[in-house]
Design goal:
688 residues; 6-stranded parallel sheet; 17 helices; 24% strand
Length: 688
């Protein structure tokens, strides 16, 4: 017989399997097995992707040396890996690796004499002989009654679960409306029907709180998957899921690739969050992969958020996503009857005029003092990304924008220019603000440590917990810091976006946003939407229990629709304007994008190859896909990083036309790009 084997060699990104023979039927390899084969002049590991029992190998076909590990993946996982490879223009081997727990894979170790030794994989702990006779559900943990909105949502979801038809629901519920309880009761129904369930959360910092609630309801039936598990821990959880011992899975985006079977329900909590987009190859989006997984397993998909993405809202509006019918469900009120907190917008240009040079406005300083005196808690969000690349006038709030592309111009310190990274227009940096004439036109940016220090000067002795990349690098740092803040009688939690979503702090009465403008001014067409989502999410952390809450947002752009939407707790006007603009420009959800990033230590080489690739893409587009636009190449916002010069090409297409295959074809036609790194990002969330 002939078996097709996908070779796993780190230095090569392979798309296609190679044919090998097996002498008879006894002990024959099966799809999903890891095998040892000869590849060129050396041995290699590979994964069986097809078996043809009727085919006869010719005399030049090599024979499979040995079957090393059985059943690492099944045909359904392979099919999904192939879809990811095609859609995201990624090598099939890198997509298949997503489904493999590294500890379960053998390794080849080169010996001093040039031979290779097979290192056996880590053995997962022994599992119980199968799933429990029925789902174990802690009835006492369930609330005595549900809100009307929860009842209505569960009635619809119950009917969908009984139908066993793959379909999607956007569960749009205001912060504190009880979305998690809806998830839990939908999971109960799925378990009772003999199905398994998967819940995704966007950040590792949310995992401990979510797992706590899930285990209170479902005990040891919950498996947990995230990036900070050791290889052995991950292998153990995979084994529990595969055996049926853990029919409820909770984790970050990579939990999609666990060995699921008989899935009845997939939940994506905080579905709008950009953390669901993978930032290295394969650059998949968890929402798109979950939709494909639900289609293949006949599962119901719930996309839950207080601030749903425009893509999901548009799918519900049209009644269909990429592949599944879609419907919107709403939870319009908080479960305890508490009101959403009032939002005060502080215009920081007025503070500047009055001589206030502090990071904190007078109103925010007053609010912090009041919380301290009452012995309550506050949360301070520093709305920032990794760096600030735009200019802002501190007197009038002016930010230079490209008139053609509706995105802010990026500041390039190397040549002191402003540049648009959509159309590559370039401008000299203004010496004075062209709107008001002020000389206070500066790069904009503040750090969390700076906020912490100023807060300690403002109220000496008040406990401050800081959460950012520096303080959360340890294995359990998120959980430990949140526990410290939760157990304090009074204090302040200072942090970046990781503190804004999902957390339930019943004793937080003040939320302050130090800089609301950073995400509004990055050169990204999603900037208004993402700014609203972040600010609305963090606003929802205030006043979730008995004590009323308040929100104070500091901004240089108080009239921006995203800021006004947060103040009103109503994004309808913002989203309608965003829909209009994106439809005109062909941006998602009305089209697909693909960002191709090219980098090299040799500036001339990468510039030349970028031009060659753009020409190849335009030739392909002219012959078969005239509805695709090819923009660029142009230098990236960060033109040089880690000694690499960086260019990018942007493709835009109609929603019905996938871009991955088009890019793959163009790259293959050019052959190897020696000395040039290529990263293909279909449906990108970052354009830096």
């Amino acid at each position: 017989m002939v078996v097709e084997v996908l070779i796993d060699i780190a230095a090569r990104a392979l798309d296609a399997p190679f044919s090998y023979s097996w002498p008879d039927t006894e002990g024959a390899p099966q799809v999903g097995d890891c095998v040892l084969v000869g590849f060129g002049a050396r041995p290699a590991l590979g994964y069986v992707t097809a078996v043809n029992e009727d085919a006869e190998a010719d005399e030049n076909t090599k024979t499979v040396t040995e079957v090393l590990t059985r059943g690492l993946f099944d045909a359904a996982a392979l099919d999904l890996a192939r879809w990811i490879s095609s859609w995201y223009a990624a090598p099939l081997i890198s997509c298949l690796r997503l489904f493999l727990a590294s500890a379960t894979i053998p390794r080849l170790k080169k010996q001093a004499d040039g031979s290779y030794e097979v290192i056996a994989p880590v053995k997962a702990r022994k599992q119980s002989p199968g799933a429990a006779p029925g789902p174990l559900i802690n009835e006492a943990d369930r609330p005595a009654r549900l809100s009307d909105g929860q009842d209505r949502a569960l009635e619809v979801l119950s009917a969908a679960l009984r139908s066993a038809q793959p379909q999607a629901f956007v569960l749009a519920g205001v912060t504190g409306s009880g979305k998690t309880e809806v998830y839990l009761q939908a999971i109960e129904q799925s378990l009772t029907a003999g199905k398994t369930c998967l819940t995704l959360v966007p950040e590792i910092s949310l995992t401990p709180q979510t797992v706590g609630r899930y285990r209170a309801r479902f005990s040891d039936q919950v498996a947990v998957l995230h990036s900070r598990l050791t290889p052995r821990q991950r292998a153990n959880e995979f084994a529990r899921i595969r055996s049926g011992e853990a029919p409820v899975v909770v984790g970050a985006r990579s939990a999609l690739f666990a060995p699921h079977h008989d899935l009845g329900l997939i939940v994506i909590d905080e579905e709008h969050d950009s953390s669901y987009k993978q930032n290295n190859s394969p650059r998949y989006h968890a929402r798109a992969v979950a939709e494909q997984l639900a289609l293949r397993q006949g599962a119901v998909l719930i996309l839950g958020s207080a601030t749903p993405s425009l893509e999901s809202l548009e799918a519900a509006r049209e009644g269909r996503g990429e592949v599944l019918p879609c419907r919107k469900l709403t939870l319009p009120e908080r479960i305890n009857g508490a009101a959403l907190p009032p939002v005060t917008i502080v215009d920081m240009t007025r503070e500047f005029e009055r001589g206030n040079r502090s990071l904190f406005s007078v109103r925010l300083q007053q609010g912090l003092h009041e919380v301290y005196e009452r012995g309550e808690k506050a949360l301070l969000l520093l709305n920032r990304r990794g760096f600030s690349s735009f200019l802002l006038c501190r007197e009038c709030g002016f930010v230079p924008h490209c008139e053609s592309c509706s995105t802010s111009l990026s500041f390039h310190a190397t040549n002191n220019t402003l540049r648009c990274h959509q159309c590559d227009a370039s401008f000299v940096v203004y010496e004075r603000c062209p709107q008001c004439g002020s000389p206070y036109l500066r790069k904009f940016g503040v750090g969390t440590q700076q906020v912490e220090e100023e807060l300690k000067r403002l109220i000496p002795g008040w406990s401050v917990v800081r959460m950012d990349r520096d303080t959360t690098s340890g294995a359990h740092a998120h959980e430990e810091l949140l526990k410290i803040f939760q157990e304090q009688e009074s204090g302040v939690l200072v942090g970046t976006q990781m503190i804004a979503k999902g957390h339930d702090f019943p004793d937080v009465t003040l939320v302050g946003v130090v800089t609301a403008d950073i995400t509004l001014n990055i050169p990204d067409f999603r900037a208004p939407e993402r700014t609203y989502q972040l600010l609305e999410q963090v606003s929802g952390r205030a006043g979730r229990d008995r004590l009323p809450g308040q929100v104070i947002i500091q901004t240089y752009l108080p009239q921006e629709p995203a800021i006004e939407a947060v103040a009103a707790h109503d994004p309808s006007a913002l989203y309608e304007e965003e829909r209009r603009l994106r439809r005109e420009l062909g941006y998602p959800p009305f089209g697909h994008l693909c960002n191709i990033l090219l980098s090299s230590e040799d500036q001339e080489r990468v510039a030349r190859f970028s031009q060659e690739l753009a020409r190849a893409l335009r030739d392909d587009v002219a012959s078969c896909s005239p509805e695709v636009q090819v923009l660029g190449p142009s230098p990236c916002i960060i033109e040089r990083a880690k000694r690499l010069w960086r260019f990018h090409i942007l493709l835009k297409s109609d929603r019905a036309l996938p871009l991955g295959p088009l890019v793959s074809t163009a790259l293959k036609s050019l052959g190897p790009a020696r000395g040039v790194n290529i990263a293909v990002d279909v449906d990108p969330y970052e354009m830096m």
